[in-house]
From TrEMBL:
<protein>
    <recommendedName>
        <fullName>ABC1 atypical kinase-like domain-containing protein</fullName>
    </recommendedName>
</protein>
<dbReference type="InterPro" id="IPR004147">
    <property type="entry name" value="ABC1_dom"/>
</dbReference>
<feature type="domain" description="ABC1 atypical kinase-like">
    <location>
        <begin position="117"/>
        <end position="348"/>
    </location>
</feature>
<dbReference type="InterPro" id="IPR011009">
    <property type="entry name" value="Kinase-like_dom_sf"/>
</dbReference>
<dbReference type="Pfam" id="PF03109">
    <property type="entry name" value="ABC1"/>
</dbReference>
<dbReference type="InterPro" id="IPR052402">
    <property type="entry name" value="ADCK_kinase"/>
</dbReference>
């Protein structure tokens, strides 16, 4: 009994310490800003840096902030937060020197000394090197990150639990969404699983006619022997902020093709598709010298009149999702109804397939709910410009659902969250046409 009391007291102090630290940081930085000692941009940057050192889950929070459009998020802050999530602060004690030395001695991987990462994520530190004269990326787990994640989960569990009692927030399905994403973060600790994910996507895209998507080749034999490291082919390309405006429409089309094939053909999706996880390649076309006997009909299908070949390099497969055939068909039906502006169809698709618990609605309440969602759909999706469900729509509709004792299913929330994360990339690629226009063009030709 005394042991249990001691454990509870220790845990209580841990929770209080966590809350008080976060509140202290928020209070002091806000006070500095209100007193005019720090500019707004510097205020948010300091909050991001200090809170992220307290709990690694705050990094995921700021990563999510990058995906939303808000007047509070200036262009400078958006760029900073996008870069910040790829350059999370680290100390030299988190570098796994032993593993890096093993790669050099046992697997002939050349790594430049001193060991300085070129990127630093929440879970891993990223190093560059070569293997058999080919450039590779070494993704090495931070020393002690497993314990940090478990401690972070312990503290966040209580914070999320208290949110269930706060008006407005309790209807946002925060607890369920957090539970699903908590597991996703834990899954990222398994590099063996990530290697399997890379190999899965590689097998889907390393085929003739699909070379506009570049998935890195992974050396799985290394991870099987050293589970806290991944060595993979290095992809060279520009970041989303470096590409030319005139090229954005081309890349948006490639991204639309990637998502369309992944979701509707392969029944898988990238669960963490933020700007830091995609590279933009623009290569000079190689002209083949043909003999006079060659048939003109055999000309390269890629000959579109431009001197370049465009590709997307996709990385970081720590979080992926799979779709059941049923959910795949439902999402297709939802998308089709949005495309056709069939608002009754949109509402029925949601109420019949995407909510839980399923059997709680009476025929009368179901009819009311369909009418309300149909009106919302007509108001927000019935305009000239097409759009798909975004995070704001999900929150509003879920509030409506909660009044009837139901909510969006966990599976659909996971899929929609991944769509919302990738939406930040899509919006940055909008130029003469939007990403959703490109996706709808593919959808219309495939229907």
């Amino acid at each position: 009994m005394f042991k249990n009391i001691k454990t509870n007291v220790v845990n209580a102090f841990r929770i209080i310490k966590s809350y008080s630290s976060a509140i202290f940081i928020l209070t002091t930085e806000t006070l500095q800003h209100k007193l005019g000692r720090t500019e707004y941009n510097d205020y948010i940057k300091q909050l991001a840096s200090r809170l992220s050192r307290e709990n690694v889950f705050y990094v995921k929070f700021f990563q999510a902030v990058c995906t939303i459009k808000s007047p509070l998020l200036t262009h400078e802050l958006s760029s900073f937060l996008t870069s910040f999530t790829d350059n999370v602060p680290y100390s030299s004690s988190e570098i796994d020197f032993h593993t890096l030395e093993l790669l050099i001695t046992d697997f002939s991987v050349s790594i430049k000394r001193p060991f300085i990462p070129i990127k630093s994520g929440t879970i891993s530190l990223i190093f560059e090197g070569t293997m058999h004269d080919k450039p590779v990326i070494i993704k090495c787990k931070r020393v002690g990150i497993d314990n940090k994640i478990q401690n972070a989960i312990f503290h966040m569990n209580h914070l999320i639990y208290t949110s269930k009692f706060i008006p407005h927030i309790k209807n946002l399905n925060v607890h369920e969404i957090y539970s699903e994403n908590k597991q996703s973060v834990v899954d990222q600790l398994s590099f063996e699983k990530e290697v399997q994910n890379i190999e899965l996507f590689y097998s889907k895209w390393n085929k003739p006619g699909l070379d506009y998507i570049k998935i890195p080749k992974v050396y799985s034999d290394i991870t099987s022997k050293i589970p806290n490291v991944i060595v993979m082919e290095r992809i060279f390309g520009k970041t989303i902020t470096q590409i030319d405006a005139d090229d954005k429409d081309i890349y948006a089309l490639l991204l639309a093709k990637f998502n369309f094939k992944s979701v509707f053909y392969d029944a898988i999706y990238h669960g963490d598709f933020h700007p830091g996880n995609v590279f933009f390649l623009k290569e000079d076309k190689v002209k083949l010298v043909r003999s006079d006997d060659d048939d003109d009909d055999d000309d390269d299908d890629d000959d579109d009149g431009t001197p370049y070949t465009y590709k997307l390099g996709i990385i970081d497969f720590g979080i992926i999702g799979t779709l059941t055939r049923e959910l795949q068909n439902v999402i297709y039906s939802l998308f089709h109804n949005l495309y056709e502006k069939n608002h009754i169809g949109v509402a029925n698709c949601m109420v019949d397939n995407l909510i839980e618990p399923k059997d709680i609605l009476t025929s009368e309440s179901k009819k009311e709910l369909v009418e309300i969602i149909s009106s919302y759909s007509e108001m927000h999706f019935g305009k000239n410009n097409y759009k798909f469900l975004d995070a704001e729509d999900m929150i509003i509709i879920n509030k409506i659902l909660c009044k009837y004792g139901v909510q969006f299913s966990k599976e659909f929330c996971k899929v929609e969250l991944s769509f919302a994360i990738s939406d930040s990339v899509c919006k940055l690629l909008s130029n003469k046409t939007t990403y959703i226009d490109q996706l709808l063009n593919i959808f219309s030709t495939s229907s």
